[in-house]
Amino acid sequence: MLTVDFARFPLAAGDRVLDLGCGGGRHAFECYRRGARVVALDRNSEEIREVATWFAAMEEAGEAPEGATATAMEGDALALPFPDDSFDVVIISEVMEHIPDDKGVLAEMVRVLRPGGRIAVTVPRYGPEKVCWALSDAYHEVEGGHIRIYRGDELLGKMREAGLRPYGTHHAHGLHSPYWWLKCAFGVDRDGEDAALPVKAYHKLLVWDIMKKPLATRLAERALDPLIGKSFVAYATKPHLPASAAPDAK
């Protein structure tokens, strides 16, 4: 399930891509399939080992084109172990809401992104996220949980302050907001067989949708995304000119 829309965020074979805070690796895997030279970085060593295993399996199965490369590594988003201008593309998906120093993370991403490079940032959307916080303290008070809720204009403002030039936004995962509202209402810590019946039923619907991609749910999500899309997605470029000399983004 991708949050970044690669129709709006074009990726060329051979692009150097950093998936920062890669988690389970969903965007890194897609970039690898598209022929990119991918680095998937996360501070969670267990997830990095799992991503590395999947990269190896993809290579063995011939899922990535010739010339594509993939590396999984543990690292700190506030002290990236890369030189300036190392990447053509940076993706950070559902990460910044967890990090106290979000401006520091943006600064590091801009540092390692080459001039003219592209960045995609996704965070939980303000409205649906507010509902989750209202329904469940456990949803956001766990260690490593969400520490802030972004308004779209706030995130775009921080991106501009960091020297980026936003060029597009959209919302994603309209079908997923009701699932999280149900989960928060019935107990966010109740998983598997312990989950409430409505949560189990809705989860089955989401799994079916992800696996089968039927036209009915694709159309439903397209209609719901602008209204209750779970994620806010912003795309930007790093200007060739210094931030102080670049014209304001439109």
From TrEMBL:
GO terms for molecular function: methyltransferase activity. Residues 18-120 form the Methyltransferase type domain. Transmembrane segments: none annotated. GO terms for biological process: methylation. Keywords: Methyltransferase, Transferase. Signal peptide: none annotated. The keyword Transferase applies. Gene3D superfamilies: Vaccinia Virus protein VP39. PANTHER family: 2-METHOXY-6-POLYPRENYL-1,4-BENZOQUINOL METHYLASE, MITOCHONDRIAL, METHYLTRANSFERASE. This is Class I SAM-dependent methyltransferase.
